[in-house]
Here is the input.
Amino acid sequence: MTNPPSPPRGTQTFVHYLEEGMGRVWLRRLLTVVLVGIAIALYQNNEAKNFRAPEAMDLAQLGRNLAAGQGYTTGFIRPLSVHLLEDQAVRKGVDPRAVLLTRHPDLENPPLYPAILAVVFKAMPVSWWAQLPSNEFYRRPMEEAVISVMNLGFFALVVALAGWLGTRLFDATAGALAAALIVGTNLFWQFANSGLPTLLLMVFLLLLLHLLLGFEREAASEVPRRGRLLLLAAGAGGMVGLMFLTQYSFGWLVVPVTGFLAWRGIGIRGRVLGLALVAFLILAAPWIARNLSACGHPFGTAGFTVLAGTDSFPGDRLQRSQHPELDRDLIWEVIFKVRTGVSEILGNELIRMGGTWVSLVFLVGLLVPFGNPSLNRLRGALVAMLVTVVLVQAGVRGWITKEFGPVTSEDLLVVLAPGVMVWGAGFLITLIDQIEWEYPFLRTWSLWGLVTVFSAPFLIGILPPKGLSLSEPYRPSVIREFADFTPKSTLFMSDVPWAVAWYGPRECVWTSLRVADTADANVRNRREDFFVFTEARRPIEAVYLSPYWADKPLLSSYIADLDFEWGRFYLEVMRGSNLPSGFPLKHVLGGPYMAAGHFLLAAKPWWKN
Here is the structure.
């Protein structure tokens, strides 16, 4: 047994240690860490902005409500949610008109991520809650910065788990390459700063792959230990349950996961399958029961997402409907939506999954079998997950991606991207090792070159940013100022209710489909106007319309779309303050706010007090 090298003594020995010994290796590692840290700091300074995705603000205000002891209630009120609650109240023999007289239960989001946010808010000083920075164009609210720090912690876990998975599957070089590729993926950094639970889902997905790898290796051993197989199967089922409690769509992964477990659980397939399903249901069933009790539907309003974007419910119309016609036969519209979505994903998005071309390397690698059968089997399980997620994403994707870009919760494929990148890194190493390098350092440089090329969008993000526009739809300071004019009990209606609930914070209803009833025989669903909502339920005392609608194309939205009456209402008031006959809100806040596209209509001129 050889003795470990003695530490350097004296200046000359220390210099030799840095130039020729292990000190050289550690010095390179330290330099790499410093350079990466500088790049990350510059990127965060330039690219980290206020939340943009509606789901991020929705989840954040849910977490804050939990931390404040208000239960799982929301300030973002969807007319569809009101409809479901009223129907359930009728079934229970309760007055449906009382639905909006108490805090509104959230029926859209599963509870895990908001619960984690609630813990984070509890750890924060209360003075930080709902506090806006003095310069909103260059600084984010403290709450959003803290949420991003939490997600950056999840990102660090993603990097570590992916590197470990690459090492377990291939070797240390493949693990390091996979970790480096993930660190340099611009899209992952955007999600880390978005406020969405995507990074948490990536952590669960990588843990799931680790569990499946352990299950596969145990099943492939000469004498599989049944107890260990059952334990790993339960862990895999539970991990899918955690993903379901983070975002409902990922509950569908129970199909490929249990299929893989049953396939490889030779001799005890029934017990493996049953235990995995039981573990999943132990986590999922209580929340499903809560939703059934609250509104009569297992997934609340999220269960109708597959109908959004169909011909009957284009855009955001479904969520804004007070009386949606859900009992019609819409199966063919859903099938057409899924077919169109799958075609778009396969043609444009699959090869760019994660925002890089590493996924293309993975797809090409499917044609090349590995010498280790376990690698091929586990890769097959990942492919089955990909197929499942492609189908689910095609079904649930609605209007949000079109309106707010790719960094939304509707991008489900990105969650699987770290796993895909691990296999892509392993395949790249296999290709590079086929080359006979004249000098060993050329192989190392080629790997660094690949990382640099794939990380180009991230590196470009280090460059100085552009300034923000004054017509951005989310002006936290404007929303807060409008909200502060009103009493805390004021019920708002807005085209950006998620922003009002988060930045206000005030309870806010999503704008009804129409402003007022009309005598036009061609207009359907006349029960969808503002008057029906405010007279039959709870009075709306303030309407806030933002540049989000002000910037809509005039021809396609204001004129051609019958469901865009609020846009035309906005335009008419901007031109001459012409309100519909009998409209209860008479006071308009004009001046520089209206000139910048921010419009407030209220029951009283609170801003004059």
Observations:
- Residues 142-298+329-460 form one domain.
- The beta strands are 73-74, 76-77, 104-105, 492-494, 508-510, 542-545, 587-589, 599-602.
- The chain is about 60% helix and 5% strand.
- The first strand starts at residue 73 and ends at 74.
